[in-house]
Amino acid sequence: EAFTKIAFHMEEGDRWFELAGRTDKAQQAKDEMDDAERKVDQLELDFGDLSRLVRDEVGRFDAQRREDLKEIIIEFLESLLSEQQDLLKAWERFAPETAAIIL
């Protein structure tokens, strides 16, 4: 919207220069406006490219984070299972002794 207002005012200036017989200034202003339009178009393209890159990187980061979390949870559960198996073996070794005490 701001660019549209600037373009409108530059066109108004062009008309004023032409009416005043200053076509060299009008052409210079038109060239500047054309250059500004090209820069805006290029900046919009650059912004679009950067936005896509950021979206891709955020997606990659999320996928990697999920994979890392999955690995951590699996390692934790495997460790917990191993500890429980060791505890079971200890109780199985101790069970005959407790049976003798109870009887």
Automatic annotation (TrEMBL):
Annotated Pfam families: Vps5 (PF09325)
Single GO biological process annotation from the record: early endosome to Golgi transport
GO molecular function: phosphatidylinositol binding
Sorting nexin/Vps5-like C-terminal domain location: 22-96
UniProtKB keywords: Coiled coil
Gene3D superfamilies, per the entry: Arfaptin homology (AH) domain/BAR domain (1.20.1270.60)
Domain of life: Eukaryota
Coiled-coil region(s): 19-53
Keyword Coiled coil belongs to the record: yes
GO CC terms: cytosol; endosome membrane
PANTHER family cross-referenced by the UniProt entry: FI18122P1, SORTING NEXIN
Listed name of the protein: Sorting nexin/Vps5-like C-terminal domain-containing protein
